[in-house]
Recover the amino acids of this structure.
């Protein structure tokens, strides 16, 4: 069996009455990239923060390379710190303005009382495409893209097994997003760390991810290999989410009609009973309103879904409009 960089089992994170994460189970193999997608407020960042133990989970377990870190205190967490790093959305907010770039990038090693830090800082800066002289500068002297390269250099300097990247490009200028994304992809391939890639950018998911996990109101509704999720999404929410994403081909884009989910995401304080998605699901039936759907495996590569209406072979409802299919027929041609 492949060894696992991360095992999250039935993770729960409540903030008082807010059930931000409510039973998430997720595994990431060494060296593979799992994208975590879902609309704003679904709990993606909270999962990420539990994994790097910026938060102590309310329930469940987090294992890094086999070690249970769920409730370790600061001191006992220290030996595991080098195994996992996080890159945040906003590099301006996550870099201490009083420190030089070199101090920022070297800090994880200083906390581990390592030697030869400045050589490693230069090496880490070089890896992310920055000159070693940048170490003397202050973060505010750099552009947004450069600052995000600095946070990546800092995150990777300890050679972690796992990187949590929480929307690493979404705060950047569109013109530099692709470069930073390419950099992450190159580094992942060269260094071989596992990655939990949290994003709203589905084209980035197609480009980077081996697997996709779809989150809705604190829970995973579907997960599986990228090609399965994009090619035959089973959960109505996944179908809706994918149909709302822009596609590069303008003709196809015009032909598409996103599935409208109507209302906003329901409150995480009082989530709907039964399937949490039933209040917005175009195909919900009575069972969906009362019975919580179990997660089931529906295909190869661990394709799993939690929906009453999906069959065991993965077939089931398709809530996407057929507009793009009808476009494939040539105009004027009659059906036989
Ligand atoms: N520290 C906190 N205290 C109280 N509620 C919180 C806290 N952090 C997050 N939440 C709530 O938990 C839920 C999930 O938030 P989270 O930030 O994890 O979502 P997200 O999927 O990352 O959203 P986005 O895509 O906007 O980043 C939201 O309802 C949010 O308001
Ligand atoms: Mg977030």
């Amino acid at each position: 069996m492949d060894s696992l960089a991360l095992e999250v089992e039935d993770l729960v994170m409540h903030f008082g009455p807010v059930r931000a994460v409510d039973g998430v189970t997720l595994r990431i193999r060494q060296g593979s990239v799992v994208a975590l997608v879902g609309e704003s407020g679904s709990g993606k960042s909270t999962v990420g923060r539990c994994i790097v133990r910026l938060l102590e989970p309310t329930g469940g377990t987090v294992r890094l390379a086999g070690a249970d870190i769920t409730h370790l205190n600061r001191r006992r967490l220290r030996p595991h710190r080098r195994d996992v790093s996080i890159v945040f959305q906003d590099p301006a907010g996550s870099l201490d303005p009083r420190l030089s770039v070199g101090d920022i990038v070297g800090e994880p090693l200083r906390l581990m009382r390592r030697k030869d830090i400045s050589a490693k800082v230069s090496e880490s800066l070089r890896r992310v495409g920055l000159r070693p002289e940048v170490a003397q500068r202050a973060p505010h002297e750099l552009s947004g893209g450069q600052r995000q390269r600095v946070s990546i250099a800092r995150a990777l300097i300890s050679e972690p097994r796992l990187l949590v990247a929480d929307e690493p490009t979404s705060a950047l200028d569109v013109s530099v997003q692709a470069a930073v994304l390419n950099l992450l992809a190159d580094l992942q391939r060269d260094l071989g760390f596992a990655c939990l890639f949290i994003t709203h950018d589905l084209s980035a998911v197609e480009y980077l991810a081996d697997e996709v996990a779809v989150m809705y109101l604190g829970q995973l509704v579907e997960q599986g290999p990228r090609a399965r999720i994009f090619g035959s999404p089973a959960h109505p929410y996944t179908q809706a989410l994918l149909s709302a994403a822009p596609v590069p081909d303008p003709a196809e884009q015009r032909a598409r009609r996103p599935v409208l989910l109507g209302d906003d995401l329901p409150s995480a304080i009082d989530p709907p009973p039964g399937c949490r998605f039933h209040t917005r699901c175009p195909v919900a039936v009575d069972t969906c309103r009362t019975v919580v759907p179990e997660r089931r495996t529906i295909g190869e590569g661990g394709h799993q879904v939690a929906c009453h209406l999906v069959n065991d072979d993965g077939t089931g409802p398709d809530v996407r409009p057929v507009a793009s299919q009808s476009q494939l027929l040539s105009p004027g041609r009659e059906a036989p």
About this structure: Residues 15, 18, 20, 38, 40-46, 268 surround adenosine-5'-triphosphate (ligand 1) (CB under 6 Å). The longest strand covers residues 4-15. Confidence is low (pLDDT under 50) at residues 323-336.
